[in-house]
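Changelog note: in this version the structure field was regenerated for every chain. One regenerated record is shown below for reference.
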Amino acid sequence: MVSSFTIRTLVVGALTAPLQLHHHHARKNYPKMLLTDRKRGTILIFLVNSPKVIVFFKFVGASNICRTTDKNFEMIDVVVEEVGQDNVVQVVTDNSINYKAYGDILMRKKSTICSTPCVTHCVDLMLEYLEKNILVHEDTIPKDLGRSGATRFVTSYLTLGCLYENKKDLIRMFTSKEWKSRKCSKLRDGKTIVDVVLDKKNWKNIVICLRGVSPLIKVLRLVD
C-alpha cells in the first residue's frame, strides 16, 4: 500500500518541476541565498533567493532521517554543492539547536558562506517570550485567543490591536439596552465579557503590550 508521504512527495515533485527549470536557467546570473523551510517535520523545502526572484529549488523527505547536527549538515551541504558554492553567499534556516550548530560547521568549512537564522522566526520567538514570561502580557492575552500561521504569536497582538481600535464601539455595545435585553447578558460568560470590556486597567495593559511589541511587528512586516 502506498503511503501518504510517498503520494505527497510525488505530487510536490510534479508541481515544482517547472520551478526547478526556471532556477537552473537563472542560477548563473545572480548570487544566491539558500532558504530552508520545514513542513510538519517530514519535508525540508529549499528555496533560492536572488535579487530578482525567490524560486523553489528542491525538497527532501526527512521522515526517516535522524535530526542530528551531522545529518542536517549533510542534507544542506549537498544542496549547497548542487547550487554551487560560488553561487551561494548566505544560508538562512530556523532557530532550532541543530540548525544553529549546523551553521557554525558550515561557516568553518565554507568560509565564503554566511549562515544566519530566519528573522521572522527570531521575532516570533521574541513575541512568544513576551507572551509567556512578562506578567502584563501573560495576564492580558487570553489563553484561547486565536493564533494561526508561522507567526502565530504576532496574531495575538494583532488581535489585541484590533480590539483596542474598536474600544469605544465595544464599550458602547456592552452598555447598550440591546445587550442588556439579551439572554446571554445574564449568563456568567456574558457578565465576564462585560467586566473585561469595562475594566480600565485591562485597556491600559493592552496599550502597554502594544507599545512593547510595536517595533517587533514593524520588523516582522518588513521581512516576512
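Spot check on this record: The first strand starts at residue 32 and ends at 39. The radius of gyration is 24 Å.
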